């Protein structure tokens, strides 16, 4: 994706995040998706880290999922089953350990034996979870998910790893999970590690993926490989009434489809204000039309208590009265985005033309070895995971204000229309500059923060204190501006990682991943200064941490936004 300036929906903030950054182009190396941009500690951006795996002597293999086939506005969110790794890879590492040093991913159509990347404005990758298992592990259905588990993209694990006989005798992990930088940013956000670090796995033999894809391709533009050149200036299809905060005038000229934000609809969960009598919102529950198959939740169960200024954990969703916390005010997101659900109203026809493609992964790896003195070639990277949107796993970025003629903002119905700069009424968490609400220089952003302790368990056994090597903040286009991670071990906050969003400018002839309005989030890496990186910072037990996420909400709100930290590290100090 070229790092070109995009004034998305007349937003100076989204243009400013790209200011002064040079474009970059596809690499001539073997990277599947070209070059990448990397950040490092202390807020450093565009560090001189070599992201070309092949130039460092790494090898790769490719795997493909079974076919995905969707109608317009349909969600695909399911386990795709086990896919065998290439035979030569399985044979080479039978009884040995593979060091996975990174991966790349794409979703592709077949054109006479050639892969053709599906543009993200055809099929939006909301997120994915992928696994590599081996001779001593298996991936099975989780029959009893923990409702309090938010580790798998805001919800409990649908699958779980079980260890098989012989697992206890292995010196390396027997399975690995890949879920970093795993949304719309995934194709041009780097997923690799500094020298000497990897995800280790003994005797690998299978790969599996659970993708969440949303079909956003206007069928008037075509869905075959020959149609990739059609409608490169995005043309939105039909959208439900509750999309875009009920502001359909913002659809024209928008670079994204309103359905990609998982709006509740007249088929499921739509608010009574938009769908009176449809039975999609009954006694505060989200329901299928007619008041059946309802689900309900409240803030006590879904959103963490407010942070009170002490060493305990806490967030801001409750104090901001974020609509995501209760089914009674829920506007859109994962709860309205189930597998094969059509994100349209009951009177809107998605048609019968299917978009067909496969998920593709390229894994980069090296041989793992141990020297005569016992020094390993690579250290295994454990996973650390924390949610700024504690603990809902998602949240709403409400529109900054209600324009004259707009419907009431769900969850903030008491906020009146804003008629002039002197009569401006903002939603909680919002600040604005310029002459809002009517002039083009109006610019607004929404902020949430969250606090936690490193002593608070992460969602894997290896949580707690450690040295971070990789940190990938995850937030969605079209609103994400930045996500920042701080430690406060000494009483003075220290910026560990700042990820600033880059937005595509639409020059897909220059770079096929430069779709206008879609985000790239360069992750933070720590390692040797010889690789252009800041040295790892060890986060001791009970270190106070906090995260801050900024999103644009000038003219419209955004549902199902996320602000998670998907990190990899080691549970000890690292000296470089």
List keywords for this structure.
six-stranded mixed sheet, about 575 residues, disordered N terminus, about 30% strand, 3 helices, globular, seven-stranded mixed sheet, mainly beta
Counting helices, strands and paired strands, the structural category is: mainly beta
Distance between the termini: 32 Å
Q: What spatial form do the alpha-carbon principal axes imply? A: globular
Helix share bin: under 10%
What's the total helix number?
Answer: 3
β-strand number: 33
The Rg value, from CA coordinates, equals 23 Å
Quaternary class: single chain
Mean pLDDT across residues: 91
Contiguous low-pLDDT stretches (5 residues minimum) are 1-28, 457-462
Describe this structure in words.
The protein contains three helices and 33 strands. It is an all-beta fold and 576 residues long. The strands form eight sheets. Strands 2, 3, 6, 7, 12, 18 and 19 form a seven-stranded mixed sheet that branches. Strands 1, 20, 24, 29, 30 and 33 form a six-stranded mixed sheet that branches. Strands 17, 22, 23, 25, 26 and 31 form a six-stranded antiparallel sheet that branches. A hairpin with a 3-residue loop joins strand 15 and strand 16. It is globular, with a radius of gyration of 23 Å.
């Amino acid at each position: 994706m070229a790092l070109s300036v995009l004034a998305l929906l007349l937003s100076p903030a989204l243009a400013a995040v790209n200011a002064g950054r040079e474009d970059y182009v596809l690499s001539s190396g073997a990277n599947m998706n070209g070059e990448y941009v990397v950040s490092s500690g202390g807020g450093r951006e565009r560090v001189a880290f070599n992201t070309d795996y092949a130039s460092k002597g790494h090898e790769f293999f490719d795997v493909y999922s079974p076919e995905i086939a969707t109608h317009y506005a349909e969600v695909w969110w399911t386990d795709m089953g086990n896919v065998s790794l290439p035979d030569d890879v399985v044979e080479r590492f039978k009884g040995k350990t593979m060091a996975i040093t990174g991966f790349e991913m794409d979703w592709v159509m077949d054109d006479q034996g050639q892969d053709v990347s599906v543009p993200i404005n055809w099929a939006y990758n909301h997120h994915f979870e992928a696994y590599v298992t081996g001779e001593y592990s298996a991936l099975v259905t989780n029959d009893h998910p923990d409702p309090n588990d938010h580790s798998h993209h805001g919800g409990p694990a649908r699958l779980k790893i079980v260890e098989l006989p012989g697992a206890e005798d292995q010196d390396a992990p027997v399975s690995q999970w890949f879920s970093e930088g795993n949304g719309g940013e995934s194709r041009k956000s780097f997923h690799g590690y500094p020298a000497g670090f990897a995800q280790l796995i003994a005797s690998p033999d299978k790969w599996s993926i659970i993708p969440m894809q949303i079909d956003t391709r206007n069928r008037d533009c075509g869905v075959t490989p020959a149609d990739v050149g059609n409608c490169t200036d995005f043309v939105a299809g039909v959208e439900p009434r509750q999309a875009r905060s009920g502001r359909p005038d913002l659809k024209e000229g928008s670079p994204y489809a309103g359905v990609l934000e998982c709006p509740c609809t007249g088929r499921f969960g739509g608010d009574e204000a938009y769908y009176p009598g449809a039975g999609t919102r009954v006694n505060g529950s989200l329901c299928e039309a007619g008041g059946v198959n309802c689900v309900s939740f409240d803030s006590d169960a879904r959103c963490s208590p407010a942070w009170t200024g002490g060493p305990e954990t806490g967030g801001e969703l409750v104090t901001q009265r974020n609509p995501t916390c209760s089914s009674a005010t829920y506007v859109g997101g994962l709860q309205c985005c189930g597998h094969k659900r059509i994100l349209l109203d009951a009177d809107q026809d998605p048609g019968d033309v299917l978009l067909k493609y496969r998920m593709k992964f390229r894994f980069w790896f090296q041989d793992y070895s141990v020297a005569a003195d016992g020094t390993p070639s690579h250290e295994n990277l454990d996973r650390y995971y924390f949610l700024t949107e504690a603990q809902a796993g998602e949240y709403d970025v409400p529109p900054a204000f209600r324009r004259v003629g707009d419907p009431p903002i769900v969850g903030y119905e008491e906020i009146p229309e804003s008629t002039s700069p002197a009569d401006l009424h903002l939603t909680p968490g919002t600040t604005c500059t310029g002459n809002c609400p009517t002039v083009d220089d109006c610019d607004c952003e929404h902020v949430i923060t969250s606090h936690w302790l490193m002593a608070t368990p992460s969602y894997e056994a290896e949580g707690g204190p450690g040295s971070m090597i990789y940190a990938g903040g995850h937030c969605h286009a079209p609103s994400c501006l930045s996500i920042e991670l701080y430690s406060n071990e000494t009483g003075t906050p220290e910026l560990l990682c700042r990820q600033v969003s880059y937005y595509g400018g639409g020059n897909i002839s220059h770079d096929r991943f430069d779709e206008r309005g879609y985000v790239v989030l360069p992750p933070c890496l720590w390692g040797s200064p010889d690789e252009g990186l800041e040295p790892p910072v060890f986060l001791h037990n009970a270190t106070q941490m906090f995260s801050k996420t900024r999103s644009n909400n000038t003219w419209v709100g955004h549902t199902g936004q996320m602000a998670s930290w998907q990190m990899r590290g080691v549970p000890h100090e690292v000296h470089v």
